[in-house]
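The data layer described in this paper is built around a simple, fixed record for each protein. Such a record has a labelled line for the sequence and another for the backbone structure tokens. For reference, a complete record is included directly beneath this paragraph.
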Amino acid sequence: MSDRSTSGNGSVRPWRTGSRIAASALVLGPALALVTPAYAERADGCLGEEGATVEEARVEREVPQEILRGSGFDASVDRFEEELCAASDLDGASTVVRSHGDALWRDAVQRVQAPGEVEGDLSAEDDRPLYWARLSMTSALHRWEPGFALSGTERAALVADLERRSRGQDGEDFAEAPGDADVKHVVVTGFDPFRLDDDIRQANPSGAAALALDGAVLETADGVAVVKAMMYPVRWRDFTDGMVEQSLLPYYTGDHQADAVITVSQGSPGRFDLEAHNGAWRGGSEDNEALGTPEIIPVPEGVPTVTPNPSGPTPPWTVPPSSRRPPGPPSPWSTTPR
């Protein structure tokens, strides 16, 4: 994987640091919203018609399929389904998930960072191939009818492992920077596309930014910075289950502590906003599974915190008028309701 070094004057030089895809194994127990789309029979008939989530069902539409074909990621999905159907036991399925989850993130990063090597006719800077390929794979896992007994907990663990591996949430250390410079370590996170029922072609520039920055070595006037990137879903249940906390804890309290953690998300057209008042509050906008409830953000079990929550909800009427943002369409993922 080619990483890039950006000098203080804006020039870019390629540096190689190698791939950094590794394992993580937080098991989630999703409450799935089940649907029954008209799936075409494939992968030797081991995939049923039932079990996909609302979000996964969208992948069968024409535009997502065009994106997969145009990026060449449809071949990755086909290989995953074939190998999954060939798995004769849970260990074999786990191996398939590990291999393809790691490869999907690595290939998505490579596609953005090495546009000259891109397959297909879709723009190299597009984050959507990763999104739709991942959904295709998790849909296959949810609809998979293996030839051996598979519990719901075991299936959920396979889905969770694929999710994190294909999102760069590997808990790995930062890439090494050449020389003995005083290196700063920065984590950058992005998000999946959302509001897809309004426009199925929707991308998310924050996700594209994360893919472009993963493994980058930035040479600035103040020293060298190394970037580790990862991506998050647009689903409230993953946040409730602690995906953000679990993926970032190694960079706050573990052996790979970061000097800065920067979350980038898609906002309003023509504007760049910095959160002035962060609060532990969800505005209730629908996520990619068409779910959303206004509520105080729960603190996941097992996550270091303080009691009581120091931030608490920040209803808009408590924010001084001089600090309020100008009117405009809100980002549904802001923690501060508007």
In short: Residues 1-43, 313-338 have pLDDT under 50 and may be disordered.
